[in-house]
Amino acid sequence: MFVKHPCPHPLLLALPGLFSASLALAQEPTLATVSVQEKLVSDVTTTVTSEAVQTHAARSLGEMLRDEPAVSVGGGAAIAQKLYIRGVEDSMLNTTLDGAAQSGRAFHHQSRLLIDPELIHSVEIDRGATPASAGPGALAGSIRMTTKDGRQLLRDGQTFGASVRGGVASNDGHRWGAALYGLAGESVDFLVSANRDDNDDYQAGDGIRQTHSGSKQSSGLGKLNWRIAAGHRLTLGYQAVQDEGSRYLRPNFWQGQGNSLMPQKTTRDTLTVTYRYDGTRTLPAMELGLFSDTMKVTRITTAAQPQFNKPLGHQFGEEIASSGLNLKAATRVADATVRYGLNIHRFEMNAVHARPPAASTSNGREESSVKGLFAEGSVPLGDQFLLGAGARYDWYGYTDNHAQRISSRGLSPNMSLTWMATDALSVRASAGTALRGAGLKEAFYVDNTRWRNDPGLQPEKARNVELGVNYNEGPWSANRPLKNPPPTPALAATI
Question: What is the pTM of this model?
Answer without folding.
Answer: 0.81
